[in-house]
Amino acid sequence: MNKLTILTTGGTIDKVYFDAASEFQVGAPVIEALLVRMNVGFEVSLNQLMRVDSLDMTDQNRKLIRQAVEESDAEHILITHGTDGMVETANWLKDVGEKKIILTGALQPAAFAENDAVFNIGCAIGAIQTVASGVYIAMNGRIFDSNKVVKNRSKNRFELTS
Length: 162
Known about the structure:
By secondary structure, the protein is an alpha/beta fold. It has helices at residues 31-37, 59-71, 86-92, 117-128; strands at residues 3-8, 15-18, 23-26, 43-48, 76-80, 100-104, 134-139, 142-145, 149-152, 157-160.
């Protein structure tokens, strides 16, 4: 892989504490700065599509994500996404052609000292270099076929569907 296209959509991975409202809000994408710090050996192209919590993601948002994937000439596309709507968005991308698409996110904001963001991003980048064309989800140290995964909210992790 010489080039990785990253599409960011928001979600917990990009959440920051907003003092004025005493709540978290989706902030600027964190992935580009993380990859620069990790001194990656490939070109990165970043496109911030939106800053949406996945609980607020609409069909219109998903159409925009699909359009960006279809219009991209990249073979490798990583999408950062909120975990609650990740599987549904993956379903919107199933038939976009011979691309390798991985969605990832975080269960804790990347801004937290203890988070899963860097781990999930690293896992996704490693996987995207080896998977066949298709749509995958990289969470909790695993790469899931997007047709066979579910978020288990009670255990706060992704699992194979039964």
